[in-house]
Write a structure and sequence with these properties.
The protein is an alpha+beta fold. The protein has a single domain (2-143), classed as Pnp Oxidase, Chain A (Roll), CATH 2.30.110.10. It has four helices and eight strands; from the N terminus they run H-E-E-E-E-H-E-E-H-H-E-E. It has helices at 2-11, 50-57, 94-107, 112-116, and strands at residues 14-21, 24-31, 33-34, 40-46, 60-66, 80-90, 120-134, 138-143. Strands 1, 2, 3, 4, 5, 6, 7 and 8 form an eight-stranded antiparallel β-sheet that branches. It starts with a helix and ends with a strand.
Length: 145
């Protein structure tokens, strides 16, 4: 089941990021890419946003990734919803930053100007666990070491 969960992460590129500050949740629709292993998710934001301030205060996050794009029409009963729990990490290595930026641009060419903005920062969510809802009744939970 863990590989199925990682496949959902790797085959999609849009999520909802939930952060918390002072007990108040904040959600953001985000484009993302993942590493090949399905252990890290990379996102980009301006440093002057509520989400970034929340991440700096509280690095624990939740992301929601679903399969609704691939299950359009009457196939809604087959939609899977994956909740990803993880931890925010900055990316300090400039070589890794550039590699991620290149991969991000390949997957999301519409974000070219955003990726070039000096006020924008690419960051990592290190995945700790997954909860997969397969339809409305079947739930599965996995952790990553």
């Amino acid at each position: 089941m863990l590989e199925k969960m990682k496949d959902i992460v790797k085959s999609n590129d849009l999520c909802v990021l939930a952060t918390v500050s002072e007990g108040k949740p904040h959600c953001s629709l985000m484009s993302y890419i993942s590493d090949e292993a399905g252990h890290e998710i990379y996102l980009i934001t301006h440093k002057q946003t509520k989400k970034y301030a929340n991440l700096m205060e509280n690095p624990t996050v939740s992301l929601l990734i679903d399969t609704r794009e691939s299950e359009k029409g009457h196939r809604r009963v087959y939609i899977k919803a994956l909740t990803v729990s993880g931890e925010f990490q900055t990316i300090r290595d400039p070589v890794k930053q550039e590699l991620i930026r290149t991969k991000f641009l390949k997957r999301h060419p519409h974000l070219m100007d955003f990726l070039k903005d000096p006020g924008a920062e690419i960051f990592c969510i290190r995945i700790k666990s997954f909860q997969l809802l397969d339809g409305v009744k079947d739930a599965f939970y996995e952790t990553i070491d």
